[in-house]
Amino acid sequence: MCRYRRFPIPLVFRRSQASLILSRMEFCNSLFFFTLLIILPLARCENTGSVLFVDSSSHQYLRSHSPDDGFEVSSMSLSEVGAAVSVLLGFAPPSTLSASGSSKLNGILMPNPLDRPRSVFMLEIKGEYDPEIVSLETGMSSNVLTSKVHVGSESADILLPGEDEVSIVPLNEPLSDFTDEDFREFASFIGGAYVADASKTLNGEFTVTDAVKINLHLSKTGDRELISSLLSLYHNIKRAVHIHEDLSQNVQSPSELITGSFNGIKAFQDESDSEGDAVHRSRLFTVALSKIFHLLQKAYDGQIVGVIYFSGSSSPKAGKGLTVMFSPRLTPRWLVEDAKINTTIHEVILVRTTLAWITGIILLIATLMGSCCLLRMPLTRDTLLYSNVKLD
């Protein structure tokens, strides 16, 4: 019977093999770590936002889709959202719109090009948001279309024909000085009440009775920031309504774009407050935005559509969202003559005028001389014959 003899493995060889295995494990861990460093920034570059198209309560400018037809608004790009805004204002979409983008617009907008609202309320909401906030259709309109938006690092342009055809009303005019009366007026507008603090100004209690009771206090930083932002938005909306009333007096009123951004949503993530405070702020934001849109519906007689865009980030490094750009107008080319040609024309006119006067004077003198000679000539047979006198 053959037996194999077992030789012991040297200690040096076992240590070298173990060190080799450890080095390979460290290399794999390092490779995995650096791979994450590369992938994570790329994953953050593609942020996802949401956009809401809110139809009018008295006119239908957006397609209505029932849950049974199986239609879902696919994700859109910012340029496609800008093209939809241009069409709602009554203008043609940009020529750079792709075929898939045209199909998405066809699934959102009504096919009648002669029936457009020509007024759009576009609000960009910056900051991280709760997906439940996007469900604003409970109080704004019966027809609301929601879509995801791919947010990149660059902004998208809303191409408009010219400043004389579109009136742009910004909503970012700051309102620096707040008073208790302003908060009381805003609370009454959204169906609530504001009780001021007698000992300290701008320190009262803000209460709104909706489906649930909303109770906020200005002494809290998050409540104060949110209510102040909503109050500023409310004052800018009232200014837009006054501008619309002035423009409606014209014979041919331009299209109107009411645009701005809202940064008060960052108050929802105040870590020092309880979860109930964030719920109340979220509910107040929904109620206030619904009341503001109803105010615009009443002022514009229902001829306005809302476009609410949730960018999903308030970082300055994030995309700039939608910007308004006016397309260059093609001006007519006139045939302008230079100075030398104009001087030559003046000289020719002067010569012609002089010749005309000289010729007229010569003809006048010749006429006078002929008349004198005719009156003084003797009455003979020849002169009478030349004067067309019939001789018997």
Automatic annotation (TrEMBL):
* Xref: InterPro entries: DUF7794
Question: Keywords of this protein's UniProt record, alphabetized?
Answer: Membrane, Transmembrane, Transmembrane helix
Cellular compartments per GO CC = endomembrane system
Q: Which residues cross the membrane?
A: 355-375
Q: Does the keyword Cell cycle apply?
A: no
All copies of the DUF7794 domain together span 48-311
One Pfam short name: DUF7794
Tell me the protein's name: Type 1 membrane protein, putative isoform 1
